[in-house]
Amino acid sequence: MKNIWRHSSLLPQVAAEYRILLGEAETPLVRSRSIAAALGLDALYFKLENLNPTGSYKDRFAAVLVSEMHMRGQKICIATSSGNTGAALSAYCAAAGIRCVIVAVDGAPVQKVRQMQLYGAEVIMVKDFGKDPQTTTFVFDQLEALCDSHNLPLPISAYRYCPSAMRGVETIAAEIAEVLPSGVQIFAPAGGGGLSLAVCRGAAQSGADFTVHCVQPGGNDTIVSALRNGDVAAVPVNASTTAVSGLQVASVIDGDAVIGHCRRSGGNGYSVSDEQVFGWQRALAQKEGIFCEPAGAVALAGLENALRRNELDKSRPVVCLVTGSGFKDMNAVDQRFQLPPTDAMPSHQWIKTIQTLFNQDYA
Question: Which range of residues forms the domain containing residue 240?
Answer without folding.
Answer: 4-56+165-336
